[in-house]
Amino acid sequence: MKVAVLMSTYNGEKYLREQIESIIGQQGVEVCLLVRDDGSSDATLTILDEYKQSGRLDYYCGSNLGPARSFMHLLQNAPTSDYYAFSDQDDIWMNDKLFTAISSMEGHESEPALYFSQTQLVDAQLNHIPSVIISPKLTFGESLIYKFIGGCTMVMNHRLREAVGNFMPEIMPMHDIWIYSIALGIGAYIHFDTTPHILYRQHSNNTIGLGQGAVYEWKKRFRRFTAKNDERYLQARELSNGYHDKFTASNAALLTLFLKGKTNVAKRLRMLTCKSLRCADRTTQLLFWINLLFNKY
Q: CA of 143: how far to CAs of 147, 149, 189, 210, 270, in Å?
């Protein structure tokens, strides 16, 4: 099977070669590596050009869009393939990562399908560190309130890429939770693998990091609570703008409830008891209920 691996780079010279080699070394699949550079000023382009000259990848450059829009630009401009995978610039993929993902979607070629997995966190020197263990419910309602999926583990088939299409939201969440929410909303086949097939490197230059401790996580939660941008609501509004008519009837109804709750107290109270708006993380669930009471979701 052919897999288009889509990598966005930005000043990634330090770990880039290791990641490219781990992608090239994938077993049991035919890999096409496409890179979009998001405005690097270090030696990233020199490294990419070296690999391009040897025929092992293709790349193009663009203005600085940030990771979310850069990855979506890649997905919209990728060559047609059986499957598509996102790659960060600083991780290490185990050599069975792509083959395992594709095997898990076997038999679902005629419908949109998405795979993602647990990650193994490592430090800058690839020493294992305690990982954040997730046990998602894999429901559309959960995706509206709980953001946990790692784009670097995601693999989707061509039917899902077609379903995502070329809609680009004005307010862009991270590309991974965006595509995950679309997949759940339209009723795609989703497979979550509890076995890690990626070494997810944590270092000082990570755009988004995990495993930085309870204090760090609570600071993030407090910032979200005090922010004025109502992140969850805005993302839901963008999903409605682009995909409401493509969602299953039950998911479209849930999305409508989620949006109307912003201006309707009765509907917000209904959301508090709605079993479809439940997530696997108890702390996130509790904070979402508090946010609902203050109409800050």
A: 6, 9, 15, 18, 18
Contact status, residue 102 vs residue 155, Cβ threshold 8 Å: yes
The predicted structure's pLDDT at residue 132: 87
End-to-end CA distance of the chain: 42
Q: Are strands 120-122 and 198-201 parallel, antiparallel or unpaired?
A: parallel
The pLDDT value given to residue 203: 82
pLDDT score, position 210: 52
Structural domains of the chain ordered from first start: 2-201 (3.90.550.10), 214-293 (no CATH)
At residue 282, φ and ψ (nearest 5 deg) are -65, -40
Strands 113-117 and 155-157, bridge-based pairing: antiparallel
User: What backbone phi and psi angles, to 5 degrees, belong to 129?
Assistant: -130, 160
Find out whether 80 and 32 touch, Cβ atoms under 8 Å. no
Write the CB contacts of 163 (distance below 8 Å, at least 6 apart in sequence): 112, 182, 183, 186, 188, 246
What is the rounded distance in angstroms from the CA atom of residue 43 to the CA atom of residue 145?
39
Integer Rg of the chain from CA? 19
How high is the pLDDT of residue 270? 97
Q: Which residues of the chain carry a pLDDT beneath 50?
A: none
Two structure tokens written together for 42:
């270090």
